[in-house]
Design goal:
By secondary structure, the chain is of the alpha+beta class. It folds into two domains: about 1-60; about 65-170, Alpha-isopropylmalate synthase LeuA, regulatory domain (Double Stranded RNA Binding Domain), CATH 3.30.160. It contains five helices and eight strands; from the N terminus they run E-H-H-E-H-E-E-E-H-E-E-E-H. It is globular and about 55 Å long. The two termini are about 25 Å apart. The model has no long low-confidence stretch (mean pLDDT about 85).
Length: about 170
C-alpha cells in the first residue's frame, strides 16, 4: 500500500515491481495523478497503480491479443482459438483444456513455446452484478524469476489471457 506520504522513489519502486517502467517527465506526471488519487482514497493499492499507469504500460508491449474465441458448455470439451500480434507478426493457435481458461492458456502456450510455470491465478470482481468487471492477477515463473500480470474485463477468460500476456510482456 502507498499513501500520499509515499514519495517518488516509493512509487517508482512499486511500479517497477509491477513491471511498469516509467521515467523522467512521465513519472512526474504519474506522481501528480497518484497524489490526487491518494488525497481522495488515502491508501493506493496495486490495482489503483495499474489503472493510473494505464496506457503507459501497454504502449511498450510487443505481444497483443488479436482475437480470442472460446467454445465450452455441458457435454462438450472446451476449445479456444487465439490470435496474437507479436512485434507486428501474426500468430494463431487452437487448443483444448479442462475449462475455457485452461484451453485459452494452452492455445497461447502453443504460440509462445516458452517454459512458464503458473504460480498464482486470482479472479476478483470489481463491481456487483451479472455485468460485473472481473480483475485477474497472475504470476508466472521462468528462469527462477516471477512476473506479475494484471487485466480487467467483463469476460474473465479474456481477462485471464490478457493477464498472462501482461506477464509475457514483462519477460526480457
Amino acid at each position: 500500500m502507498l499513501t500520499a506520504r509515499s514519495g517518488h522513489a516509493a512509487l517508482k519502486s512499486r511500479l517497477d515491481a509491477l513491471g511498469i517502467k516509467v521515467e523522467g517527465e512521465k513519472l512526474d506526471a504519474l506522481y501528480k495523478e497518484f497524489l490526487k488519487m491518494a488525497d481522495q482514497k488515502k491508501e493506493i493499492n496495486d490495482d489503483d497503480l495499474m489503472v493510473l499507469a494505464g496506457a503507459e504500460r501497454t504502449n511498450d508491449h510487443h505481444i497483443h491479443l488479436d482475437f480470442l474465441q472460446i467454445t465450452c458448455g455441458v457435454g462438450v470439451r472446451p476449445v479456444a482459438s487465439i490470435g496474437l500480434d507479436i512485434s507486428g507478426e501474426k500468430f494463431s493457435s487452437a487448443a483444448v483444456g479442462n475449462g475455457p481458461v485452461d484451453a485459452a492458456i494452452n492455445a497461447l502456450r502453443n504460440i509462445i513455446k516458452r517454459p512458464l510455470t503458473l504460480k498464482e491465478f486470482t479472479i476478483q470482481n470489481i463491481t456487483k452484478g451479472t455485468n460485473d468487471v472481473g480483475k485477474v492477477h497472475m504470476q508466472v515463473e521462468t528462469d527462477q524469476k516471477v512476473y506479475y500480470g494484471f487485466s480487467a474485463n467483463t469476460d474473465i477468460v479474456t481477462a485471464a489471457v490478457e493477464a498472462y500476456i501482461d506477464c509475457l510482456n514483462k519477460i526480457q
